Description:
- The protein has helices spanning 2-18, 21-39, 43-53, 59-85, 88-93, 98-109, 148-158, 168-180, 216-223, 259-274, and strands at residues 95-96, 114-118, 137-142, 164-167, 185-190, 203-206, 209-212, 227-237, 240-249.
- It is an alpha/beta fold.
- Helix 1 (2-18) packs across helix 4, helix 2 packs across helix 4 and helix 3 crosses helix 4 (59-85).
- The protein starts with a helix and ends in an 18-residue tail after the last helix.
- The radius of gyration is 19 Å and the shape is globular.
- It contains ten helices and nine strands.
- The chain folds into two domains: 2-85, no CATH class; 94-278, no CATH class.
- The strands form two sheets. A seven-stranded mixed β-sheet has the order 1-9-8-2-5-3-4. It has a two-stranded antiparallel sheet with strand order 6-7.
Amino acid sequence: MKRVEYFLFQLLSWLLSRLPNFILYTIADIVFIFFYYIVGYRKNVVFKNLRNSFPEKSDKEIKQIAIKFYHHLSDIFIENIALIKMKPERVEKMVDYESCENIITDQYNKNKHVIIVTAHYNNWEFYLTLPILSQHKVLGIYKPLNDSFYDKQFFKMRQKFGAFPITMSDAFRTVLQLFKDKELMLVGLIADQRPPKESSNYWTNFLNQETAIFLGPEKIAKKINATLIFTYLEKVKRGKYKMICSSQLDDLSKYSEYEITELYVRFVEKLIIEKPEYWLWSHNRWKRKRKK
Length: 292
């Protein structure tokens, strides 16, 4: 049965990757109905997260955000299946990265490593286009999927433009080795979700809740004396994103411990408050509580 499932998934990916956008997103609209009304995909988690994050909002406002989120989640779902088989030239047309290109190229010319830090905001998988921006060796840090077949499919997708996907468990060791070898790196990190229990030793208030925060970006950036850039993807319209380089931290030695992490948390929080429907509310972000 698994073989049939995997074959059908690859066939679906190929078909979606060849469809024009108006058909692709019509299918996404159907997926929305399935996710929200029929299956109720993680509805309890989504509504709980929204209510706790925005206690000042009415039930009607929370429901409106949730519906917008499920519409957006359906877009991401369809886009990511299509991305696996989508031709690179089409992917490239879906992302406008001009506002970041000169910034990152300038860092390469200065012989500086770069840490790109973003969030699960809009469709983060489009960061696979990062190798277009510079001559840095691009490393994308990711958490492997449980199913080896699907993990392999997304691994290959993330290599589409020449990036090197690295698992979270191998990230620090790999970065330090490349630093030792004097190879210029651009490391992409998504640091807004629940960190591994063993790696978290910083807690702060995030979206009205006490939250464990992943310290990877701050630790790695300081260790290799990198320029750290906070970025996000803006959804211009369905099928079109714009990469925004929001803040740039150059001399990291002047920041005290956890200060960079705190700046990142406030950066992500501001994004979410402005357009909450684009964040990944279906993740059980606050599952773990701080021990008293």
